[in-house]
Amino acid sequence: MPRPVNGDRPPDQEVREAMTDMLAAMDEWGPEKVVCVSDQRTGMRGVLVIDNTARGMGKGGTRMSATLTVEEVARLARTMTWKWAAVDLFHGGAKAGILGDPSAPDKEDVLRAFARALANEVPSEYVFGLDMGLTESDAAIFVDELRDRGAAVGLPRALGGVPYDQLGVTGFGVAEAADAAAQTVGLALKDSRVAIQGFGAVGQAAAERLVELGATIVATSTAAGAVHDAGGIDIARLAALRTEFGDDCVREYGGVQPADAALRVDCDILVPAAREDVIDDAIAAATTARLVVEGANLPTNPSSRAVLHKRGLALVPDFIANCGGIIAAAHSMDARYSAIPVDPDTIFTMISAKVRANVPTVLGESAARDITPHEAATGLAHARVRTAMELRGQRPADVTEVRL
């Protein structure tokens, strides 16, 4: 893959600026380690960010994207730090990423090169997982390349793993969060109109669970576009089309609109379940939703969250709503070398219990202190991480703001 060039600056200047930015981004919490790797033969370029391990070994998903940046991975690693602490499970924050097209024919070669380049860190300091652009089969490639069953989680069931996407654990948790939040704010989920931006593994599973709970899905989207039906989308039909056509399922369903339309339709509950930074101030000011549930990581920013809060709209933060994946990862981490497979029922039971306990706590704290739910949730996670750091003798200086 050709190396992207930023303007007319020489490559060595780009490298210096990137390193300066990373150094400037370090704060009282981390990152503890940033490892950038490359391979000349395959063109692989990637990064591992281990953010904070005060509460345990760094753990987070591995993504592959043609627009990946070190800053993006570092932000996601920080989110993992708070996510693990918020659900009170003992891992620290980390994230890895590969710059590349996940649909490229040489994907396997790139994945193997990435695994080899991080052999010093994997699995002693980090274990590969699944995120955008990677599948259970890709996790199996990591394990094969390093000849270590413990090198990755999210493996296919046939290899003794917990196939997160197949089970829909993250989307299930998002739906449980929506139900818990709706009850907290006095909104009946049954017959509520839900718009889900993103119909990938998370969005589809969330939609299916929300339908089971009585909600009506009025809009959803993929990279190919959005579909909207005020009377309710046939989620079973759309899911079948996704199996056959992938992102083009929305075209096959009919009535396709621009992809961002799913964020703008009339609805009661809005679930951004695709990419980060999709809800800006304008969408926050215009949405008719009474409740926003963050299925994706970092779909809002501090400014848009403030707009939603000022309007009196409830928001369930990402690291509260989409913690299903890390709960599954926790079970998988514990069983990586076991001959006995993890029982999925134990995962779903824990997801429901953790989410349904955390959501009213966070929304209640937000209302009582008149702060955004993100600030309330981060305060909970912040206190747990800080305590762990103090017990280890790391004792950071007082922190007045936690950056996401």
UniProtKB/TrEMBL annotation:
<keyword id="KW-0560">Oxidoreductase</keyword>
<dbReference type="Pfam" id="PF00208">
    <property type="entry name" value="ELFV_dehydrog"/>
</dbReference>
<keyword id="KW-0520">NAD</keyword>
<dbReference type="Pfam" id="PF02812">
    <property type="entry name" value="ELFV_dehydrog_N"/>
</dbReference>
<feature type="binding site">
    <location>
        <position position="83"/>
    </location>
    <ligand>
        <name>substrate</name>
    </ligand>
</feature>
<dbReference type="GO" id="GO:0004352">
    <property type="term" value="F:glutamate dehydrogenase (NAD+) activity"/>
</dbReference>
<feature type="active site" description="Proton donor">
    <location>
        <position position="95"/>
    </location>
</feature>
<keyword id="KW-0547">Nucleotide-binding</keyword>
<dbReference type="InterPro" id="IPR006095">
    <property type="entry name" value="Glu/Leu/Phe/Val/Trp_DH"/>
</dbReference>
<feature type="binding site">
    <location>
        <position position="170"/>
    </location>
    <ligand>
        <name>NAD(+)</name>
    </ligand>
</feature>
<dbReference type="GO" id="GO:0000166">
    <property type="term" value="F:nucleotide binding"/>
</dbReference>
<comment type="similarity">
    <text>Belongs to the Glu/Leu/Phe/Val dehydrogenases family.</text>
</comment>
<dbReference type="InterPro" id="IPR006096">
    <property type="entry name" value="Glu/Leu/Phe/Val/Trp_DH_C"/>
</dbReference>
<feature type="domain" description="Glutamate/phenylalanine/leucine/valine/L-tryptophan dehydrogenase C-terminal">
    <location>
        <begin position="161"/>
        <end position="393"/>
    </location>
</feature>
<dbReference type="InterPro" id="IPR046346">
    <property type="entry name" value="Aminoacid_DH-like_N_sf"/>
</dbReference>
<dbReference type="InterPro" id="IPR014362">
    <property type="entry name" value="Glu_DH"/>
</dbReference>
<protein>
    <recommendedName>
        <fullName>Glutamate dehydrogenase</fullName>
    </recommendedName>
</protein>
<feature type="binding site">
    <location>
        <position position="59"/>
    </location>
    <ligand>
        <name>substrate</name>
    </ligand>
</feature>
<dbReference type="GO" id="GO:0006538">
    <property type="term" value="P:L-glutamate catabolic process"/>
</dbReference>
<dbReference type="InterPro" id="IPR036291">
    <property type="entry name" value="NAD(P)-bd_dom_sf"/>
</dbReference>
<dbReference type="InterPro" id="IPR033524">
    <property type="entry name" value="Glu/Leu/Phe/Val_DH_AS"/>
</dbReference>
<dbReference type="InterPro" id="IPR006097">
    <property type="entry name" value="Glu/Leu/Phe/Val/Trp_DH_dimer"/>
</dbReference>
<feature type="site" description="Important for catalysis">
    <location>
        <position position="131"/>
    </location>
</feature>
